[in-house]
Each structure stands twice: as C-alpha cells, then as structure tokens.
Amino acid sequence: MAILKVARLGHPVLRQQAQPLSPEEIRAHATQEFIDDMIETMREYDGAGLAANQVHTLKQVAVIEVQANPRYPEAPEIPLTVVINPVVTPLTDEMEEGWEGCLSVPDMRGLVPRYTAVRLEYHDREGQLQSVVAKDFFARVAQHETDHLNGHVYLDRMRDLSTLAHIAEWQKYWLDLFFVARIRETARLAGVPLGFARSAEEVEKRVVGPRLVLLDLTGGFEYERVFAAAESAKVPVLAFTTHALARETQPWHARCARVVTKETLTAELPSLLREGVAP
Residue ranges per domain, the chain? Predict the structure, then answer.
C-alpha cells in the first residue's frame, strides 16, 4: 500500500465530476489496490473520509472511517466503509449546522448545514449494491464525501463564510463558544432556566436549588470540589466527555448520574433539561 498525494483547494481536480465504475471495474485488481491506498492515506492523515478526487483520481470512490479520530475527538465511531458510485437521498427536511474540516482545505474549519438523516446507496468494494440509513455525523461525512465526487467542497455549502477559521483560532474562539451558545438556545426553547459556573467556587455558591449540574469533564476543573458540592446538595451530575478522552475521564464517571459524549448531549439535551436525570 502507498500514501497518496492529497490535492489542495485550488487544484482543478477538486472541481471535476468523478466517473462511475462498473462492478467489473470495481473488482479489478488495480481498483482494489487503489482502494487500499485510499484507506492507508485517510488513516495516515487522520481523515474521517477521503474521496478519489482528493488523490487526483476521477473515479466515484470514497472511503469513510472514524476510530477515536484526533481531528474529530467528539465524533462517534464509524466502521470502515468503502462507498463506490454513491447516491445520497435526504430522509428529512431537517438540516443542522456543524463544524467540518477537509484534508484538501488543511488546518481550517467552517460551519456547514447538512441533512441530519440520509439514505446512502452505493456499491461496496465487491461490487455489490448496498443501502444504509446514515444519521448525524455519519450522514454529514457521507454528504461531504459525495460532494467531493461531484466537484464540490464544503466551502460551497457554508451559509456564512465569517465562520471559516484556522484551526488554532477555531479552537480558541469558536469551539466552546458555539457549544455554549447551543446549550443556551436549547434551554431557552425548552423554557428551562440555566446558569453557568466557571470555577469550583462558583459551583459551590450556586449548586443549591438546581435540578441538575451539567459538567464538562474535559474542562480541567477542580472536580473533587465540584462533585463534593453537588453530592452535599443532593443534585445529580450529568457529565459530558469525548470519545478520545473517555478513558482519561473514567475516574469521575462513577460519581455522575450519567456520562455522555457532546454529540449525545446535543441530541438529548431538550429532554434532559426538562426531565433531568435520576440521582
């Protein structure tokens, strides 16, 4: 297997339509070697997916995989999936804005609206037709890679280019701000009062009264003081972490009523805010 050269934004190959493959072409030795090289390249650069256009080849082939990916630490795992001649059909009108990056647009992130559920029809690497329902992050990646094969990049889908950020500035200024804003808006729509504490001392002052403490286990707080205050006030703790840091935050999990990833928290937050969790 070989690590392939990744085309960067501005190269004409990223704006060209990839060509479909017949089952016989899919099963050909050259195609199988190319698929293996794509997988190796995706893993080498920590991609969540890779389309053939990105490695200078105009074939309708893409690979997708997420396994504790450091570029997407909160993303749920997606098993290795080889998609050939993919067709994406939205299963809902609901779209959600989420942060995307791309190996062909290195070190950048932008907010991109995508359908939250799609049907993905494709040939697998044996040339067999497959059809799956992809939701949430899997749906996002499937749409991103299919866009590549049709000559589009995620920048084309952005509604507001002012959110486009270099990854260092994105981590510093956008990531936590966007997540907190989403929590605030969800609480407002659910009619649930919400307060924020930025230190263990603030938690100790405000913990009496709430039905729930929502705690970021990746934030570097004085967790012993936070848990002691919550336990003293008999307020359950709903904590969130990431897939990549789940093992590191494990020592605190037993003191939580529930521990979820950020993605699960976002999906279930309205009901959690209204109903709470059992202590």
Answer: 12-163, 166-275
The CATH number of the structural domain formed by 12-163 is 3.90.45.10
Indicate whether 132 pLDDT > 80: yes
Place of tokens 């049709």: 150
pTM reported for the whole predicted model: 0.69
What residue has token string 């002691």? 228
Structure confidence by residue, pLDDT tens digits, 222-278? 999 999 999 999 989 999 887 777 888 999 999 999 998 877 887 788 888 887 766
Query: What does the pLDDT read at residue 83?
Result: 98
Closest by Cα among 78, 65, 79, 84 to 124: 84
Q: Three-class SS string for the chain?
A: CCCCCCCCCCCHHHHCCCECCCHHHHHCHHHHHHHHHHHHHHHHCCCCEEEHHHHCCCECEEEEEECCCCCCCCCCCEEEEEEEEEEEEECCCCEEEEEEEECCEEEEEEEEEEECEEEEEEECCCCCEEEEEEEHHHHHHHHHHHHHHCCCCHHHHCCCHHHCEEHHHHHHHHHHHHHHHHHHHHHHHHCCCCCCCCCHHHHHHHCCCCCCEEEECCCCCCHHHHHHHHHHHCCCEEEEECCCCHHHHHHHHCCCCEEEEHHHHHHHHHHHHHHCCCC
pLDDT at 196 exceeding the cut of 90: no
Residues 76-110 pLDDT 10s: 889 999 999 999 999 999 898 888 999 999 999 99
How many Å apart are CA 131 and CA 89, to the nearest integer? Answer: 11
Q: What's at 220, amino acid-wise?
A: G
Architecture of domain 166-275: 3-Layer(aba) Sandwich (3.40)
Q: Which residue numbers are catalytic? A: 145
The pLDDT assigned to 52 comes to 98
